[in-house]
Amino acid sequence: MSESTTSKMITLKSSDGVVFVVPETVAKQSITISHIMEDISTITFIPLLNVGAPTLALVIEYCKKHVEAADMSNTETTEDGSSPMPASSRISDDELWNWDKQFIDVDQETLFNLMMAADYLHIQGLLDVACHKVADMIKGKNPEEIRRTFNIKNDLTPEEEEEIRCENLWAFE
């Protein structure tokens, strides 16, 4: 039986009041939650004031997948050195990375909400995959295209823009 099905349950409450009950192993994918649980060992209810319900649901989905993947790859071997789980049912790093890339293929608002939640909750893997997605959105674009992509107003004067270009020539090569 996997650890995630035998661990105690933790209640997470989103900023908009929606309650999620998750296995402790899933909640502990967040360093923030893990530290709270270490500080107060009897805690089973954690309000997350900076994460809305739709985003928290996605964060939990990400954490569950990564706990499952870890459970599948950390199977113990039997006395003869074989694994009780067939290799075909384990998740490879490449398969997990592909799942992560599909998972993070969301609209821009959701992407930024996931980044903020991953940063707040200290879930480095989720933050990394979200930042990678943003980097891919920027790659190969000029400043004006980047502004359009992220709806950024250009509040620089032409002189300020030229000064920045001169100071950072390497970025425009």
Automatic annotation (TrEMBL):
Pathway connected to this protein: Protein modification; protein ubiquitination
SUPFAM superfamilies: POZ domain, Skp1 dimerisation domain-like
All residue ranges annotated as the SKP1 component POZ domain in the record: 8-67
Cross-referenced Gene3D superfamilies: Potassium Channel Kv1.1, Chain A
A Pfam short name: Skp1
SKP1 component dimerisation domain span: 124-171
UniProtKB keywords: Ubl conjugation pathway
Entry's Gene Ontology BP terms: jasmonic acid mediated signaling pathway; protein ubiquitination; ubiquitin-dependent protein catabolic process
Family: Belongs to the SKP1 family.
Quaternary data: Part of a SCF (SKP1-cullin-F-box) protein ligase complex.
Function: Involved in ubiquitination and subsequent proteasomal degradation of target proteins. Together with CUL1, RBX1 and a F-box protein, it forms a SCF E3 ubiquitin ligase complex. The functional specificity of this complex depends on the type of F-box protein. In the SCF complex, it serves as an adapter that links the F-box protein to CUL1.
Identification of the protein by name: SKP1-like protein
